[in-house]
Amino acid sequence: MAPRTRSKTAERTTFALDVNGERTELAFAPHKTLLEVLREDLGLTGTKHGCELGECGTCTVLVDGQPVLSCLVLAASCIGKQIRTVEGMAGAELHPLQRAFADLGAAQCGYCTPGFLLAAEALLAKHPKPTREQIKSALAGNLCRCTGYLKIYEAVELAAAWMRGEDQDPERETLYGRR
Known about the structure:
Blueprint: E1 13-19, E2 22-28, H1 34-41, E3 60-63, E4 66-69, E5 82-84, H2 96-104, H3 113-126, H4 132-139, H5 150-163, H6 172-176
Parallel strand pairs: 1-5
Antiparallel strand pairs: 1-2, 3-4, 3-5
Helix pairs in contact: 2-5, 3-4
């Protein structure tokens, strides 16, 4: 006798989430990850699907100011918490991190960039003048297959200087290489 399989429509529950400074009520299945809700239900596609195992960092968002891997977090566990995605970084102008990444060529294909930007933002909130080692440590959970990491580290350092109010230009060799 063949085993019976049961088909059950996924239950949807209405939740209120605070995303990028806006409270939004939406209905979703309680088993959905934060990544799925952000992309599929809210249309915030800046947060990327990567490995969905918590190994690549491309799905990084901030929850109450802390970087989390949204592929591993249930959206329902974020009720009452502040969620920030890459879409929430820029206001009328680019965030200094976004500007520095663009100016220094720290992003090539761009797929990993949102995760790096948010992890770096969390770092700079705690350490306005981070050392290179602090930057490496804070970004260690984010993988990039295109750039190598030097331009990313330099972009974080430049953005940190700008955020401290320093009038700093990128080093010539950062932009053009060594002669």
